[in-house]
Amino acid sequence: MPSHASALVDREDLRQQVDGRLRSVLAEQADVLARISTDAEPLVDAWTQMLVGGKRLRAAFAYWSWRAHGGRPGTAEATALVGVGAALELFQAAALFHDDVMDRSDTRRGIPTAHRTFAARHRDSGWSGDADQFGLSSAILLGDLSLVASEDEFLRAVHEMPSAQTDPARRLFTQMRTEVTVGQYLDMHAQMLPWTDDFDADERRAREVVRSKSARYSVESPILLGAALAGATTRQMEVCSAVGLPLGEAFQLRDDLLGAFGDPATTGKPAGDDLREGKRTLLVVRAMRALDPGARTRLASLLGAPDLTAADVDEMQQTIRATGAPEEVETLIETLSDSALSALDASGLDGSAAETLTALALAAVQRAA
What we know:
Elements: H1 3-10, H2 14-36, H3 41-51, H4 57-68, H5 76-103, E1 107-108, E2 111-112, H6 114-125, H7 131-158, H8 163-192, H9 199-229, H10 234-261, H11 264-267, H12 273-277, H13 282-290, H14 293-302, H15 310-323, H16 325-345, H17 351-365
Antiparallel strand pairs: 1-2
Cofactor: Mg(2+)
Family: Belongs to the FPP/GGPP synthase family.
Keywords: Magnesium, Metal-binding, Transferase
């Protein structure tokens, strides 16, 4: 994350407070698991690794939305919002553990993914059975642990707040988790479908995946959660969606470009990672639409193919660039961002907090990792 974005998350000591809360959760979980069995210790190590170094953008969107809707620092409610931010980070960790399994990813943030780490532990220890299956199963269970912890942390954070604020927030938190789970399925389902000439349907599916799997839980839901916990009106919540959904789409479309063309040294993933995984992103759909049948067949044969070489990835990148699809996605990112920022500018929210929210929005779509 760019240094200016990191500085935004550091405002009002938010990152340090969220990180502190996460350390407390992990310490509590370490005690629980140790009482069950000392053999569970590697789970805590892997869980800690996943939670270290996150951008904390979701926590920041929730907190600064709460501030922009009248929340005040240094209060008990501010402490509650830190807990909500930690719950969002725990939920993201759960989603990432599961996502890495489904995508068969080798690395995240430049280090081996959890399922690869546990598979290596199995092999190095000379255990019996299938090492890869052990790794996959361990990562799935880690995701489940983090999902349960996210629920516990959310409920603990808001339990003393008025029900008029916490009831809608709880519904939002539940809805967010359902949307991400369904979005994961839709993403997987889209990759299984054969390519046809129905690019309108492909684009519809790609946009549905963007909205359900990422846009809402990355940006819209955190902004709505912060607003709800500040007691926002129905109209204010509508404005939050008008800001959060297009901004979340732009956020994920930026991820799609980075997944195809990002610098591995910055993203922490192999070059062309989304192309290696065969992701049916809007970028790829737009490229396929622009290609002639022969080139389309060639690109389809490479997307997600096992044992791709660096030359194969480079060929896909060059093919997609030549179609102009990256520029089309950049234009869409700009259009969506402008829509979100216009809605935020017209919202009439509290000045300095709204300025921070605006700066966070820009950082989310202008990042390089």
